[in-house]
Specification:
By secondary structure, this protein is mainly α. The protein has two domains: 103 residues, no CATH class; 74 residues, no CATH class. Helix content is 44%, strand content 6%.
Amino acid sequence: MENEIVHEIFQQFEGKFPPTDQEIPIKQTIMFFCNNKISKVFCATAFDYLAGLNTQQFNQSRLFVYLNHFEQVSSRIINHLLQIREKNVFHRYDFGETENLIKYNSKTAPKYPYSRIIFNKIVLISGLNDAIASPDDVHQLRKKLSGKIFIDYIVKNPKWNHLDFIFGKNGYENVNKFIAETIEKYSGKKLINHHN
């Protein structure tokens, strides 16, 4: 079913995404989809579904406020996420063999070098229902960052998804309180106005 939905969305662009060779701001694409009479009804649900369905945390009445946060997100970022998902490798953007040779001096896009991460006090925060950074993806990241993760915090809400970290109705209780308390504990400084 997920592939059928994606296929239907891409059909709006005659099978091409992005619709031209130039980068198209994602906000324009989403606004087109959400303002369409037929698809408007499904927009909020689709928005939430793409990140991991959790309608309890998604305030549908604020959809257009949320959309304004996507002003700087381009179709290239979406394409990059799709490339990573397809190859199951965390790598730089793949421009194709010819352009890769120019940009990276390699026919393939290089993998991100985890070995170059020298900081060993990483706080890793993840959700169990995240369709973009899935629990399996996070598990692979944990293995690659072995010995460098200082705190590994998994949101207790089993439905917590990728967008809930930013837009979740209970963001303070599930994530932001932990972040503020961790900063206070290890910096020795009190943060203003985070306590209820």
